[in-house]
Amino acid sequence: MQDRIQDYCKVGVVHFMLWKDCIKGDGDHSSLDVILNDPYFDAVEITRINDAGIRKTVAAKLKASRKAVAFGAQPVCLTQKLDLNHLDESERRKAMRGVIDVIPQAYEMGASGFGVLSGKDVAPEKHIDARLRLLDSLREIAGELKKLGDMPLNLELFDTLPYGKNCLIGSPSDAAFIACELRRDFPSFGLMVDLSHLPLQGISPRAMWDACGQYVTHAHMGNCVMDNPGHLMNGDEHPPFCDPSGRNGVRELSEYLRVLLDGSYLSRERRPVLSFEVCVYGEWTRDALLRQSKETLDAAWVLV
After folding, report:
1. What is the 3-state secondary structure (H, E, C) of the chain?
2. Whole-prediction pTM
């Protein structure tokens, strides 16, 4: 591809994955400056910030940067073991409260989208009941978002592996069912896909898109390690691209980009968000990881 990838999307970074000290709402949020001051990036993804004063400062920085902002409530659920499809109603309501409580923060920080994930997978005979519980939760969250503005709700597809996140919604066909149902009342509802999760789901980018592409409104790119219990990043841990034990490098990212382009997700007119979700480990530094991520994306885009 001759044009720049930035001509077709807003390249972003999932801040709370690269700076995991911020994943629970604390940590040093001045680290956002690294992304906000880098002209390569046009987007950033954040999560809750517990301190109101820090949140106000961050909101001002985000607004001044004029970069796209997305809000991820996935860490709210994962770090507190909240489950939006729990079959125990009291546990489901607890999860609902946890997610709904951070909606005002997403608006305060000028987010253009609000991401969540499903809860834990269940036995096959309980799957239909769990999906109905999830639908109830998503409708209520979408309704709460609607009370404050027009921010869309996005459901991220994960995996069903015991060494991954083992979520109810990993299958793209299941995700498409959820999206079809939600869009009856909330037309802006969409799905969030992630290259990191596709090997864990045992599915190719093309098969994913064929199953649920019409509902995709947000995309991540990253890597994963599978079937290697001795590896520090085994499972859904987002190691750097091209990790010797990983599944995604330049070729796999190029295939993913081609699918997103053919499916009109990547678009000169809309320029949606496409974010790196990567994490340091071992001898990696954040500066080196960001540099390598950019190089991988540029190399993959040339092959599209």
Report:
1. CCCCHHHCCEEEEEHHHHCHHHCCCCCCHHHHHHHHCCCCCCEEEECCCCCHHHHHHHHHHHHHHCCEEEEECHHHHHHHCCCCCCCCHHHHHHHHHHHHCCHHHHHHCCCCCEEEECCECCCHHHHHHHHHHHHHHHHHHHHHHHHHCCCCEEEECCCCCCCCCCECCCCHHHHHHHHHHHCCCCCCCEEEEEHHHHHHHCCCHHHHHHHHHHHEEEEEECCCECCCCCCCCEECCCCCCCCCCECCCHHHHHHHHHHHHHCCCCCCCCCCEEEECCCCCCCCCHHHHHHHHHHHHHHHHHCC
2. 0.98
